[in-house]
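S.,

Sequence below, as promised.
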Amino acid sequence: MQMTRILTLLLLLFMAAPLAGQVSFEAKVSKKRLGINERLRVDFEMNEDGDNFRPPSFEGFRVLGGPNQSISNSWINGRRTYSKTYSFFLAPQKKGALTIGQAVIEIDGALYKSLPISVEITEAVKRSGDGGDADYLASENVHLVAEVSNTNPYLNEAITVVYKLYVSNEVSITANWREIDAPKYADFWSQSIDQKGQMKIYEGQYNGAPYRYVILRTTVLYPQKTGTLEIEPLTLDVPIDVRSNKRDFIGRFMMTRVNKTISAGRQAIKVKELPLAGQPEDFSGAVGSFDFTVNTNKKTLDVGESLALKVGVSGSGNLKLFELPEPNFPGALEVYEPTRQDKIRTKSSGMTGFFGQEYTIVPQAQGAFTVQPLTFSYFDPKKQTYITKTSEPVSIEVANGPVASTEIVLADKEPSSTQRDLPTQTGFKYIKLVTDWKSIKSAPFFNTMRFWLWLFLPLVLIPLWFAYKKWHAKYYGNSAKNAYRQTQRLAKKYLSEAKAKREDHAKFYEALERALHNFLKAKLDLSTSELSQENTAHLLTQKGLDQELIVRWIGLFKRCDMARYAPSAQGAADRDFDAAKELITLIDKQLN
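The prediction came back faster than expected:
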């Protein structure tokens, strides 16, 4: 029996010997779930001494410290225990599931790898700790706050979010903070207001204690959806200098730097619907306080002259987020596509300024015309009511030109019952009751002149067709000559109106300018609102047009504009006409 126990013990020792010599290399983390403002410790531990340690890349983390090396070597009851550890201190840089990759160590000529470890990073958490801990002091003395001007606005009513960084007098920071997560404004129209120059430091209070603070960002928001909307937080990584318990050689407390990740927290905005009671039919979503105007630069003019009619809204509110009412013009007025005009500034209180559309009108006949009044409705969130403003009718007097043709259709008066004649038998004599049709015998076709003509005509046409094709290839085969003829026809097409008005100086230059506009609109597929001089030069440059042609084109536009108001000699008009014809030909050739 005793011998059996000894053999069993020897067998166990023999089996455990290879296990005792087995190499172990593994990774351990201080926690597998932590907030983005917390720190993570990672240990790579081995039971045999190794060399050429290669840590992972730590993607998604910033390395705050490490590698710190520690060695433990002990003998207990004659048994040696060895441990070597490489430690790292990490700060997560984003939320979500992150992975600590594999580390590699070389032991006795063999490579060993640790297993990857997954950790979950959540939003910033509130921490409690020891008042003497540097991390705790940094957390308690630096705060990021998002101040919302109104958490219960109406749809399309402006609200302002101001991000402030509060710092107590117990710690100090530098301007080297880094943004980790930018706030996201889903379902909002947003615009940030630039902080011009260096950030100014203000004195204020946080939770009743004196603090210094800086304004990091100011953003104006217009909610585009009703209900509860969330603003995701701004998250920063901030280096903070905290006083330590150590003193220097003259007795002053030494400072230690701690990197903290701080967050402004989520903000919930409850957006109210605009009231349906009293909402006008023409309401297009304007919210704020506005003035509405409709005016023209002239009210009397001749046929062929142009006038400008402006429809505009000024004030404060969501000026970029609604449409203006469109006027109805009489048919005798030729109206071009409106050009948008706006002078809108975004301040901390919201958008303010002017937004309008200008219509260019050219009467085609003389007479008195009226543009009917327009109505514009908006919701005033301060008064909590809808307001409708109506413009005055615009009267336009047009003289010196053809008269507008009007077709008046008069309905025949139906005679009364006493004036109607009763039908008689003789009243239906004009109706034929018997036909006078005659039979037609079919004439023979075979072996007639028409038969042989239709038979041989295709044979005659075939050589004529080949002769025509040969002539067409010879005449139109030269691509250069063909392109030249096409551009000449194009120039004549657009300049025909100007050529017909060469005797009238002002009308000639109006027609010439309109011809140049229409040519560019057709070639570049643009609207009238896009044909400013600056935008035209930019678009032609993008199309690869020669700079010399662009300069000549803009110069011709300027001469047309000036010549409409300053008379010039007939020779100058002829030169401008020839220059326009030449430029249309050259530009069409380059743009093809």
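The longest strand covers residues 61-76.

Coffee later?
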